[in-house]
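Re-run with default settings, no changes from the original entry. Doing this only to confirm the output is reproducible before filing.
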Amino acid sequence: MKRLVLKMLPVSLVLATLLAPRTTRWPAEGAVIDDPTLPSVLLIGDSISKGYAPIARAHLAAEANVHWPLENCHATSDGLARLDAWLAGRRWDVIHFNWGLHDLKYVHDGALAAPGVGRRATPLEAYQRNLERLVTRLEATGAQLVWASTTPVPPGCNGRVHGDAAVYNAAALRVMRRHGVLVNDLHAFALPRLRDLQRPRDVHFTTTGSAALAAQVARAVRTALDGPREAAACPGPGRDDEQPQPAAAPWPAAADG
């Protein structure tokens, strides 16, 4: 019981911080001192990842040194331009990464726009090509890679179409299978419980939703730290002790909700 209390304490502190009034958009790391005896983990993603990253770090306290870029990693084109800066020239044992919501969006004059008004930020074919290049560069780091599928787009979102996340995820999965990348299917994890976890007509998650995603991300990182498993799927919620099974069919290109 004492061990459980100690493990949960960092998570409780992080949740309390997230519930407090915000003074900055992205979670700053502050004075983080790594434990040289622990593996290092990098979380790459957009604003969804910035919601779960601090809580995932708390879950993995005493297991890994967890870091993330202190900026929104946006679309795959931004990843190609900024990846070296995010890798920071250091050795990573696990890199958990996602791009998608900023690729599938529609924009006009730099702002989100309806599909009939704006253009797609990254067409599907370009998205898949960009992911191929990004995964190849990430493989060169020697880290165990974990792809996080793009979380659902609910109905009524400005600049994004309900159902497009599943389409982009199917393209991403083809890339990950070719490279034998571990898959953390956050889309499938979140989809059945969106009413409880996600804001209405918004791709972003509530604090409760970010906490749920963080727990799943921590599980995926632990799976990766256990050793490479080609084209495997990470364990589902509450199943940390089970061995992941090979990824089956791609995510269906159906509606997100």
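The chain has one domain: 39-226. The CA atoms of residues 16 and 103 lie 32 Å apart.
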